[in-house]
Amino acid sequence: MKLADNKATLSFSNGKPSIELPVYSGNIGPDVIDIRKLYSQTGMFTYDPGFLSTAATQSAITYIDGDQGELLYRGYPIEQLAVNCDFLETCYLLLKGDLPNATEKKDFTELVTRHTMVNEQMQFFMRGFRRDAHPMAILTGLVGGMSAFYHDSTDINNPEHREISAIRLIAKLPTLVAMAYKYGIGQPYMYPQNDLSYAGNFLRMMFATPCEEYKVNPVIEKALDRIFILHADHEQNASTSTVRLCGSSGTNPFAAIAAGVACLWGPAHGGANEAALNMLYDIQKQGGVAKIGEFIKQVKDKNSNVKLMGFGHRVYKNYDPRAKLMQQTCNEVLTELGLEKDPLFALAKELEKIALEDEYFVSRKLYPNVDFYSGIVQRAIGIPVNLFTGIFALARTVGWIAQLNEMIGDPEYKIGRPRQLFTGAPRRDVPHISKR
Ligand code: SDX
Asked: Which reaction(s) does its UniProt entry say it catalyses (predicted)?
């Protein structure tokens, strides 16, 4: 970051001396006012719950232009990456800062492929869960549990440990997600198969059984690979900020990523794809397209607490570019599977059309986000609704790791420790119980 030819002056109406604060510029996007010395100079904190106007870090990984609806991974537009690259190339890009050449791509793919198996003991770890446990509960446990298996890569300050734990996490998440699914349906686990692509291997671990050969459908394989690309990283979202804050204590990479899995589970965040599909199911059950008007009315009624899941975004005040690509992917998959007439897809498109013409949504700049269509395409592929966020976590793991590594690699980083505006009881003495 570079000092801008601009300064911020903070003055106070109560006569406290004003102070000057430096302004820094990045390469693109808003400048920042550096308030690191604010408390020492004024004895005051800033106040920004939800971090609506706060840059918690500088980063060179992902940039979102919310007004333009633009998403760049290391400068490359998501629309180009989704068409010209595969997920492992995107992983390489996010981790190392540039796209791999043919040799680098081959070596990286081989490295990941060689780490897709998990320790056999993990199967016994799984047995502690109920068969009907939510896969995200299982994944939070399994990912955190990885730190109990890979002691040789838990020192977050050791670059070699960061490198191998990154490969292990990227390689093993598909295996763990597929194991969580198989455990829930009582089928045997399928071991990874090294001659398959990253997405193809995941499809086989999910849907193959030991009883017969499994043939990967190339259209579904490509669609799933693209879904992984679309979910790979997204600036300082809630789960990424969780990973950074957790990692800033020096804990091991597996524990920090497990914290990200736990945060992503929430319906306001990564859990929205599961919530969006359940919302479409509910509207379908109540009468489908004919009931959209009634549902929209509920959404607009503040007392209903009903939100249009898969719509709205803290940063995008325009169409989420990932939602457009997800809708295209949806079309491809449904056509491939002969499901073009899928009633839920038709319902989602009609719901989007009506919402985008409604003043409530237009005035609040609420557009479909990545989660609006992702559930429909995952359901068509055969992925159960309660596993959608697990797929999101699988794909976002590389982004979490890249952001964590960037933080640890920043000589300026400190343990994250926000302050507060205290509104509780001032000091008082404990009364005897007879007087309470
Ligand atoms: C992800 O941060 C990221 O980058 C996340 C993510 C990533 O890749 O990591 O993009 C992934 O989490 C996508 C978002 C998935 N969540 C959902 O689809 C859940 C539904 N969306 C909302 O909960 C909401 O839009 C948020 C949480 C996504 C964003 O909320 P904000 O920025 O805090 O905005 P807000 O809640 O203050 O909303 C502003 C107004 C409010 O109305 P008013 O108080 O002004 O009258 O818009 C309304 C909100 O009530 N609003 C919605 C709405 N989203 C916002 N009203 C109905 N339906 C919605 N979906």
From this structure: oxaloacetate + acetyl-CoA + H2O = citrate + CoA + H(+)
